[in-house]
Write a structure and sequence with these properties.
The protein has 315 residues and is an alpha/beta fold. It has two domains: 109 residues, Rossmann fold, CATH 3.40.50; 180 residues, NAD(P)-binding Rossmann-like Domain (Rossmann fold). The model has no long low-confidence stretch (mean pLDDT 95). It has a seven-stranded parallel sheet. A five-stranded parallel sheet has the order 2-1-3-4-5, sandwiched between helices.
Length: 315
Amino acid sequence: MPRERPIRRVGIHRWGTHPCPPDYLRDLLNERDDLDCRFELCEPGDLTGLDGVVTVFHHDEFVDSVSWVHNIRSGYEDFPLDDYRDAGVTMTNSTGVAGDLVAETVTGLVVTLAKGLHRLRDRQHEREWERLPWQRPFEVSGSSACVVGLGELGGSVATRLGVLGMDVDGVDIRPVSGLGIDHVHDASRIEDAVREARFVVLTTPLTEATRGLVDGAVFEAMREDAYLVNVSRGEVIAWGALETALEGAEIAGAALDVFHEEPLPPDSPLWEREEVIITPHAAAQSKTYGDRIADLVATNVAQLNGGATPWNRVV
C-alpha cells in the first residue's frame, strides 16, 4: 500500500561534479512528467520540508530529517546502516548502474598495460620517437586473468575480458556460473587463484572480509610479469605490501583507480612509477551516468509512493 508520507520533495546534495553535476541530475528529474515530485539542490544542514535526499556521502543530518536516502554510488561502507534502520529511514544505492562502464575502463587498462601504451604516451610528452623493446608488448588474447569479486561489476569485467580471448578465472565467496569463467576459487584460496594470472582485477565490494585482502602473501603468489588492476576500493589492498611488491619487482605493474586516501597525495611514490597507471577514481565516468541515476531515482520514487520495494534497497 502507498506510504503514509509520500515522496514529494527530494533534495540533491551539492556534491561537486563527480560523477555527474547535481544540477544536471536535478534538471533531468524535473523534466520528467511521470513523477509527482520536485527535485532541488540542498546542503546537508538545510533539509527542511524534504522527504528524501540523493547524495554521494552520508551526513548525520539525513537520519533525522528525511525518510529516504539514495546513494548514487554502489559502495555504502561509510553509511551508518543501524542508525538508518533505527530511524526508519529507507536507503537505496546504485549497484548495477555503472558495471558496464567500469568494465569498459578495465578493458582499456588491460590493453594499455599489455601494449605499453602508457609508456608511449609518456614519451610523447617528451617528443621522443622511441619504440618499446621488441619483447615488451604482448597479446591480450590468450593471456590469463583472475577477477576477484564476481558480482554485477566483476561479472561484466569477466565477460568483456573473455571476449578479448583471455582465459578468465575468478574469486568469490559463492559458486558462480553463466559467466564463461573457467574456474571460481573461494576467497580463502586467493593465493592459489592468482598464481597463474597475468592480470589480477579487483572488483570486490569493501567488507570486513575483503579489507586488506590483497596483502603480501597475494603479491608473493603472483607472477613476476603480472599486473594488478583495482577498480573496487582502495582498502582492499594492503598498500605497504603493494609498494614493496613494486619496489622489489615482484609484480610487473598496476593500474589503480581507487586509493586509501583520495585524492592520492602529491608525495606518494606511486606517481613516479613508470609501471603504474593512476586514474582519479574515474572508472565509471561517462556522460550517461547522470541519465542512469535519474532513471533509477525516478523508478524508486514511484516504487516508494506505490508501496513497493525500491530497487537496490540496502535498509
